[in-house]
Each structure stands twice: as C-alpha cells, then as structure tokens.
Amino acid sequence: MSRPPSYDRETALEKAVGLFWHKGYHGSSMKQVEQALDMRPGSIYAAFGSKDELFSEALARYTKEAGEDLASHMAGYASVIEGLQSFLQKIARDCSASEQAPARACMIVKTLLEANNTHGALYAQANRVLSAIEDAFTALLEKAQRQGELTPRTDCRRLARLLQGQLMGLRSMAERNLSATELEQLGQDMSAVLERYRAEN
Fold first, then answer.
1. Which domains, from first to last, does the chain contain?
2. Which of 48, 107, 170, 172 could form a disulfide with 21 if both were Cys (CB 3.0 to 4.6 A apart)?
3. Angle at alpha carbon of residue 192, lines to 186 and 196, rounded to 5°
C-alpha cells in the first residue's frame, strides 16, 4: 500500500507562486525551488513532473487567485464603472505597499516577456491568460453598457484592452520605485479615463 505524500500540495504551490512571482522562471534555480518548497528534488519531480510543470501550475494558481480577487472586489459594487475605478486604484495601492513587493510586477506579464523566446508552452499559457483577462474586462464593460453606465457607441473590447494595457504599464512603472503618492496618482488618473465613456444621465 502506497504511503500518502508527506507534503501539502496547495501549500507547496503557494510557496512556488511566491518564489516564481518574485524571481521569475529563469531567476529561480532548482536549489531555490527546493528551499522554498522545503522538498527534496525527487519529491518535487514526483509531485509536479518538472520545473516547467511546477511553474505552469504555479502560474495557473496565481491566475485563479487574481480572478477571484477581481470577482470579489466587483461583487461589492452595484456600479460596474465605480467598481472598476476602485479596482484600478486598489492595484496602484497594492503596488506601493512595501510588504507586497512581488505584486509590483504581474507574474503573468513577467512570464510572457521572459518565456517569449525560451519556453513556448509557458509563453502560450501566459498569452491565453491575458486573453482571458481581456475577456473578463470586456464582459464587465458590456454589463455596464447594458446598465446604461456607458455610452452605446463604446467599443467594450477596445476599452478592455486599454484597461489591461494600463494595468500592465502601472505594474511596470512600480518597478521604478515610484513613491506611494505617485503610484496612487497614477491609479487615480487611470480610473479617470473611464469617465470619458460614461453615459450622460
């Protein structure tokens, strides 16, 4: 009878997310992976198959948590536009929080840039995730349009892509070590863009 694994898979994945988010794929050696997960090489390979597969699972975990964060945030707003504006400002505040330093750079975007010419499967996964995020923003904006918050002429897909581009830019700007005030101002300026698309009441 086989023995149950002596590790908790969810805890191991959470630790892997923290490591890869902070250092990226290439910046994380297998020795660092072993130390972060507190697992021996054989156990890691038996549990996850390879470093690539572990990274892929960690990226999926990160993506799931990010999606849940957006959904949870939006659930607190009757107005989609106000919810999105608040979400943009929240991301800006998170980027400025020293205890959340890894949050400055999105793990998905880091993977897209890092794996472009080296790991086709991881690059494709990151690209699919970004497309899904764009879809989520588009769905929210279409809901806002149905609720009369956005003008009928608003191209929701195009606006969703703009929002995603702004978030990617914000996280990159945070790597410049801008002050909390400067980052919060960026978040406010980004959220103000949505006012241009509001329907007149």
1. 9-197 (1.10.357.10)
2. 107
3. 145
- Are the beta carbons of 111 and 97 closer than 8 angstroms? no
Whether this prediction's pTM lies above 0.90 is answered by: no
Handedness of CA 85, 83, 113, 97 (dihedral sign): positive
Dihedral sign computed on CA atoms, order 144, 148, 152, 154: negative
The secondary structure of residue 105, as a DSSP letter, is S
Q: Nearest to residue 145, comparing CAs of 109, 197, 190? A: 197
pLDDT tens digit sequence for 123-157: 999 999 999 999 999 999 999 999 999 999 999 99
Beta bridge partners of 198: 150
Cα 148 to the chain's mean position, in Å?
29
